[in-house]
Amino acid sequence: MKKMRVVFLVVTIVALLSGLILNRPERVDEKRYLKEIAPELVFSEKKGVPPHYRSDRGIIAFNSYDIAPDIRGYAGPIKVLILLTPEGRIYRLKIIHHQETENYVHYMLTSSYLRQFIGKHVNEPFEVDNDIDGISRATVSVKALAETIRVSSRTVASEVLGIEVKRGGTGRVFPLDWLIYLCWFSITFGFYLLTKRNKRFLKYRDLLLIGSILILGVYLSAFFSIIHLYNLLLLQVSSSGLWFVVLLTTVVSMLIAGRFYCGWLCPFGAITEFFHKVPVRKWRISFEVDYRYRWVKYLLLLLFTLSVLIGRKPHYGNYEAYITLFSLHGSSLSWSVVILVFVFSTKVKRFWCRYLCPVGAIGGMLSSSDSRYKGSKDCPMENKPSPPTHECIRCNRCYEHLI
Ligand code: SF4
């Protein structure tokens, strides 16, 4: 594992540097987009403070990023080309750049969703679930979009069109999502510690796994993904508290408790564990073959890390079946992967976690060894006696507490 850590570190650094050298900052061709969304208008060159285009009919066009660069979605800023009428109403708009995960924001990008902004006056609230429709599982992104449009439009209306605008935002919203995540994380981590001391508490693990599926998977749709790490490495961080809480709790827990996240919190891992309880004939795989193929997930992680960091596009690394499942959106190929994983999970314990999961690979690399895990015939990962720590998901079934 030491070797793998070094290889991963070297690949990450080389890929990051190559990405920086090979990729020039992306230039968005705003004039092309202006022609596309308002072909009937002729615009001047971009000028002024804040920078804007002016049309022959007095319509003002601007890139929201020039005015509100600090408002970020789940993966950096969402850049919107906005056209304002001289009266301060939105005439047209188009999202011209974003790095959000398409599975979640595909509806936000459609013209039918964006149409609700057309005709709005800059002084309207632009508040999600009030005058702007929310999208379940994409709350962070749609809030960022609404705020970007509100802030940049009011600035341009005030400073270019001379309209009196309302100041300030929509007020602070209580951060319920990350608080729920943190509570659930604390509860499961508490049980993880209890099961180390007393095996009686193991009987609650299935209940906690069901809780993780319902709370993190279905309700919040907030779970750790390798894209969190890619966004961090590419400095495309979110302004959402939930994003930071998921990232920090997972990485810290991996450092102190190995793959605890996989064994107690991951909703996808939990589902596959339950799939194995389906009474069908199981496959017997020899230890040698099994352990050899477990390296596939590290290989996949290396390949995707290379392509993401060299291309500087986090979504190149989106091969995680759980994103398709919990976003309820994906190509036929990604849905086929989900179905195949479920079918294989009925035959092989935790098929995804053992052979394919990038988060499992990261967790394995961050796990420190602990000889108190002795192995058990009921092991959910089918680990052999005295298992390698990077393959243990810390269910604590075989943990021997030293008094
Ligand atoms: S090795 Fe032990 S603690 Fe780890 S997953 Fe298997 S049974 Fe659970």
Topology:
Elements: H1 2-22, H2 30-37, E1 53-54, E2 60-63, H3 64-67, E3 72-73, E4 76-77, E5 79-84, E6 90-97, H4 102-105, H5 111-114, H6 139-159, H7 176-197, H8 205-219, H9 226-233, H10 241-257, H11 260-265, H12 267-275, H13 287-293, H14 296-311, H15 321-327, H16 332-347, H17 351-355, H18 358-366
Antiparallel strand pairs: 1-2, 2-5, 3-4, 5-6
Bound molecules: iron/sulfur cluster.
Would you mind describing this structure in some detail?
- The chain has 2 domains: 122 residues, no CATH class; 218 residues, no CATH class.
- 49% of the residues lie in helices and 6% in strands.
- It has 18 helices and 6 strands.
- The protein has a 4-stranded antiparallel beta sheet, with helices on both faces.
- Strand 1 and strand 2 form a beta hairpin.
- The longest helix has 22 residues.
- Bound molecules: iron/sulfur cluster (SF4).
- The site of iron/sulfur cluster has 16 residues, from loops.
In brief, what are we looking at here?
The chain is mainly α and 403 residues long. Helices cover 49% and strands 6% of the residues.
Taking all Cα atoms into account, the compactness measure Rg is 24 Å
Q: Going across the biggest sheet, name each strand in turn.
A: 1-2-5-6
Fraction of residues in H or I helices: 40-55%
Main sheet overview: 4 strands, antiparallel
End-to-end gap: 29 Å
User: What ligands does this structure carry?
Assistant: iron/sulfur cluster
Spatial shape: elongated
Order of helices and strands: HHEEHEEEEHHHHHHHHHHHHHHH
Return the domain count: 2
Q: How many β-strand runs?
A: 6
Number of helices: 18
Unreliable stretches covering 5 or more consecutive residues:
none
| Mean model confidence by pLDDT | 90
Q: Quickly give the structural class.
A: mainly alpha
Residue share in β-strands: 5-15%
